Structure formats: structure tokens, C-alpha cells
Amino acid sequence: MYNAFWNHLKEQLLSTPPDFTCALELLKDVKENRLRNEIEEALDTDLLKQEAEHGALDVPHLSNYILNLMTLLCAPVRDEAIQKLETITDPVHLLRGIFRVLGLMKMDMVNYTIQSFRPYLQEHSIQYEQAKFQELLDKQPSLLDYTTKWLTKAATDITTPCPSSPESPSSSRSVACSLPNGAGNNSEPPSPTMVLYQGYLNLLLWDPENEEFPETLLMDRTRLQEMAFQLHQLTVLASVLLVARSFSGEILFSSSEFVDRLKCITKALTEEFISRPEETMLSVSEQVSQEIHQGLKDMGLTTLSSENTASLLGQLQNITKKENCIRSIVDQRIRLFLKCCLLHGMQESLLHFPGGLILIERELAELGWKFLNLMHHNQQVFGPYYAEILKNIIHPAQAQETDVEHN
After folding, report:
1. What is the pTM of this model?
2. Angle between helices 325-344 and 192-202 (to 10 degrees)
3. What average pLDDT does the segment 240-247 reach?
4. What superkingdom heads the lineage (predicted)?
5. At what angle do helices 361-391 and 145-159 cross, to 10 degrees?
6. How far is C-alpha 99 from the chain's CA centre?
């Protein structure tokens, strides 16, 4: 990595016109080294110790020097904090404040350094992973068999016409039918990119017992399993919130404090939903019903009647069923959002956030970022291999697209 940095600097300076980005960073380092020497001279610990022993240590002058130096070195975001330090007269409080801000400045520098080197690290990581995988592929030509099978399944999901009767919301065919340019929506062969993205989405439905996991994604399997669990939990959470809102009304749900409390309770109770769905939703329904009753009472609103309470409990417990209408719609819209993240990027997808999911916008956006970043990196590393495989799966003319390699 050390040699790569200097080689990159040479390329920048020899380019037309020259790129001085890295050179300016080096000059900044030189400046900081000069400042370091000045600091060592001004804060000579032996000299300061002698001055303290003879009662000649000028604490205010020393404090002002340190604060001026911090102002010179800190990021603009820390200017206000340093200005507040200048108003502190108590030496103990001042020192405590100085060390607190210095800690923040240290983290600022660490984050800046990471951000500066991230492009070089990512580029090196992609090249390294490609080289290592090619070495394994040369030794074991069948290394892409499961990957080929995975992409073939994705192409089938997109090209097979959608059934007239709805399938299980957790099936990959149902996901493909619910998405833009999905199965049966277009007579043209699918693009390689659409097939690949369908394959990525299918990973979130992967059966843990199925060991034929794509070889190109084995290193990411654990993280994908965690994302699949989060997706499942968000589906249940959003379904619970939608049912609860339909009974309690907009006034109660306009309270962010109430919504956050309901989220927290539901998340905690649904940790074991997959292994114990009926028991879990029984606990959720009872607790949510109690929270709604107390919330309406605290706001001076009419509480639910016995009949409405029973209906609320029943609808919440019905979420355990995979064919539950609310759960199916929520599941499809979440997967649609993730597909849009892959196709259009995160920012545009947030501008067109799915209706009905606004109550889990923060949580879903977090999942979207993680999924998008992981799949984007995988696409950069293994795009050339996917392109070759897809040439033999879909129409040859369509497979000439190069965006599978470079998106």
C-alpha cells in the first residue's frame, strides 16, 4: 500500500493537466511537522516544570497558547467548542474541556485519514479479491457452478409469466412479479443487470439449509443472513404499526414518543418470531393493546371498546400467517424499495419512499444502505464473471451489456 500511494502520486503529477491532490496533502503534512516542532519548543515540559517550581508559570498565557493552537488545527465544526473554552476561567474546568475537545479533534483526524485513503483501499481490495478468486478458479474450474445455478434461477424468476393466483409473499417468484420490469411484464429478454439484481434480492430469501450458496458470495453469507433477519423483523414491525394505527387513529400516532415506544416494544418481543410466531404475536398483541389503551387515556381520547380491542388482538395475531394481506403488501414494498436502491441509488429511492412504510423509514433506510453497499462491492469484484455466465443464460444480444461489470 505504501508503494501504491507513491505510484499513484507519480501518475497524478504526470497526467495532463497535472493533478496536485496528493501533492497538496503531502505539503500539509510538512506544515504539520513544522507546527509539531513549534509546539515542542513552546511546551517544553522540563522548562515548564522549572517555572512551576519557582512560581513563575504563567497559566493564562499557556492556556491561551494552547487554545490558539487548537483553533489553528481543528476542523471548522470545532470552532464553537473552542470559543466556549476561551470563556472558562476555572483552570480545572478549562483543562477538562481542552482534553475533551482534543479527543474530538483526534477522532476528526482519524475519520479524515480514513476518508482520504478509502478510494485507494477500495481499489486495492477489488483487485486483490479478483486476483485471489482467479487463482482458485484456475485450480478448480467448477468453482462457479453454484453461482451459475443462482443466476439461472434469477433469470427464470424474471422471465416466467406471473401466475393468476398470488403466491407466497416469501417466494422469489412473488418478489419478481411485484417488482418493476418483473416477470410477465415485458416480452423482451431481461438485461443482465436486472437478472443480477433479482439474484441479489433472492439471497434475502435463501433457505439456510440450502448449501448451494453462490461461490462469489460465500464471504458475505453471514451478513446477508443478518440482513434477511432484519428484513423479516421490519416486515412484522411495519405490519404491527399499520394495524395499531388503524385502530388508534392519527392523533396518537402523531406522537413520536408513542411511536418510538411501540417500536421498541415490538422489536424486543419479535426477536424470536421465526422460531415461535404464534407465541410471539400473542405477547405483541397484548402489549400493543395495553399501550394503545394507555396512550389514548393519557391524551384524553376515547379508549377502544371491548369489540374493537378483540378485533385489534385478532388482526395482530393474524400477522403470523404468511398469506396475511398486510404482511404480504409490506414485504413486497420493502423488497421493492431494496430493488430501487440497486437500480437508482439510495438518494433517489428515499425521495420515492414506499407508501405505508414511513413509520419504519429510518430502519429501512439503514438496511438499504447496508444491502446496497455490500452488493455494489460484490458487483465490482465479480462483475466480469457474472457477465460471462449471463451470456449463456439470456439472449446473446442482451448479454453484451457492460453495466453488469461496472455499475
Report:
1. 0.67
2. 130
3. 93
4. Eukaryota
5. 110
6. 32
